[in-house]
Amino acid sequence: MTTDLTRADICAVAIADAFRGDGERLCNPIGNLPLIGGRLAVATFEPHMMLTDGFYTLMDPTGPDDVPPINLPEPERIAQRTVAHWNPYREMFSLLFHGRRHVMMGATQVDRYGNQNIAAIGDWLKPRRQLLGFRGAPGNTINHTTSYWVPNHSPRVFVEAVDVVCGIGYDRAAELGPVASRFHEIRRVVSNLGVFDFEATDSNGIPTMRLRSVHPGVSVDEILEATGCDVVVPDQVPESRLPTPDELETIHRLDPKGLRFYEVPAS
Amino acid sequence: MPGPDKRCTEDEVVAELESGMTIGIGGWGSRRKPMSLIRAILRSDLKDLTIVAYGGPDIGLLCRSGQAAKVITGFVSLDSIPLEANYGVARQNGTVEAEEWDEGMLLLGLTAAGWRVPFLPCRAGLGSDIPKLMPNILTVRSPYPTVVGDVEENEELIAVPALELDVALVHQNVSDSSGNAAWLGEDPYMDDLFVRAAKKAYVSCERIVATDELASVADVTHLRIARMDVTGVIHAPNGAHFTECQPDYGRDEAFQKRYAATAKSDEAWVEFRDEFLDLDEAGYQAKVKELQA
């Protein structure tokens, strides 16, 4: 382990691993650490995924070093992107209805079935706190693979039941039946403490949240204490893997200003 | 042959509007919003408006002024400031009715209105709380069977209702005097769809050029709005301020911060309104120039 390895770097690698095996489709992380992780995947083990420039085009970097850093000022963002496709918002909806996309969104609340809320806290009709609205979450989750990133793992985020279902989880998908839900997949929930997948089922056979790994320095008890919903805990919970030296170098290149530490502090 | 001259002012547009109307507003978040037209509405006594938009400060301002009774949106955001605080306060106080759709649903609702069909089907929204919380969002069963493995089913889909607008307001970079208009950035947003979804559409623009200059200032693929669908054209240089209007100008972040602070107190709102909203567009633009000097 190099001396400057941080929890944020572990998170970046866990996020990248969520895209592993996706092949030729759109890698569409939203938020700083998801962007770092998604671009890391494309710069290393998933080179055939396409990337968004964050706005209106899809990029095809000419090689690993051409995957641009996140959060560049506007002139550099334009200069450093290798444009492959025009992707204005209307085309993004067309693309996501078609389904060749894996998005990683944030979640203000998430439950054991992977239901996600970004719309409002409290009663939606007159919320205690208005958030973003439903944005693209209903369409994303019913049409293609979706993962979530939670930088502040707590019982207020991992809840028994979300206040508003924006992104739909496996119980809602099961209610719709196998035809309507055939494109639904919640792949991972990556947090600052660990990684969850849905490779377990509840007593009704519905996929449910399973602790996949804990980040180094975090105990299983600690993560369960910070989780307000039931999760399946296997007998052996591995530690999240460490970045390779090459991955670490790439993370530093993708995030030279250290924006990842605003989400997951270094100390 | 040249089309009719439809040039008019913001205040002439507002004189055509009525309380209770459904108004669609183009742009996206805090990008290319027809702000000079919004400012004219803010100076008027129009009320009980229903606003349809990929929302930004347009919705925030009309909630703050109390003129929006209802909004239909996919989100309301200032982009660089993720949450629109004036909209948030209005929601939390229950002073505005909301329909918060999936963003893709909004695209289909506008398209349906433009095509004069009552709905368009999609999968987005199924299983989410949208059809549970918004009782006017219904589903439709496909007349065609879908076969998946050994299951055959007439699929149930969300029937996104047509978003029929009384009026659409959009801002473009360039237009001729009869409403053939083009955007010059990288995204048309849904502006042309708002125009077709509306009974009357008003296009504000940075520059008005002769029709025979249009194809030399904009690539033909950007000439998305045709004069047949346009009621009025407003010459509004810097008209999208403080939202961005690429490539002509970026967002005025300092001004946007100042606007966002109006959610904090009634005093802050009154002060902002006195300084920037209770004056005509020329006065507003002069103030902005002063601030930027």
Description:
The complex is a heterodimer of chains A (267) and B (293). Chain A is an alpha/beta fold and 267 residues long. In chain A, 28% of the residues lie in helices and 21% in strands. Chain A has nine helices and 13 strands. A nine-stranded mixed beta sheet of chain A has the order 4-3-2-1-5-10-11-12-13, with helices on both faces. In chain A, a hairpin with a 2-residue loop joins β11 (185-191) and β12. In chain A, α1 (7-18) crosses α2 and α2 (32-43) packs across α8. The radius of gyration of chain A is 18 Å and the shape is globular. Chain B is of the alpha/beta class. Chain B has two domains: 7-102 and 163-270 and 277-288, Glutaconate Coenzyme A-transferase, CATH 3.40.1080.10; 119-160, no CATH class. Chain B is built from eleven helices and 13 strands. Chain B has helices at 10-16, 35-43, 57-64, 85-92, 103-115, 130-133, 191-197, 214-217, 253-260, 266-277, 281-292; strands at 22-25, 49-55, 68-76, 97-100, 119-122, 138-141, 146-148, 151-153, 156-161, 165-175, 181-182, 198-208, 232-235. In chain B, the strands form three sheets. In chain B, strands 1, 2, 3, 4, 10, 11, 12 and 13 form an eight-stranded mixed beta sheet that branches. A three-stranded antiparallel beta sheet of chain B has the order 5-9-6. In chain B, α3 (57-64) links the parallel β2 and β3. In chain B, α1 crosses α2, α3 packs across α4 and α5 (103-115) packs across α7. The relative contact order of chain B is 0.17. The chains are: A alpha/beta (267), B alpha/beta (293). The interface between A and B is large, with 48 and 46 residues.
The CATH topology of the largest domain in chain B is given as Glutaconate Coenzyme A-transferase
**What is the terminal separation of chain A in angstroms?**
16 Å
The poorly predicted ranges of chain B are none
Give the helices and strands of chain A as they follow along the chain: HEHEEHEHEEEEEHEHEEEHHH
Strand order of the largest sheet of chain A: 4-3-2-1-5-10-11-12-13
The structural class of chain B is: alpha/beta
By DSSP, the count of extended strands of chain A is 13
CATH class of the largest domain in chain B: Alpha Beta
Catalogue the unreliable spans of chain A.
none
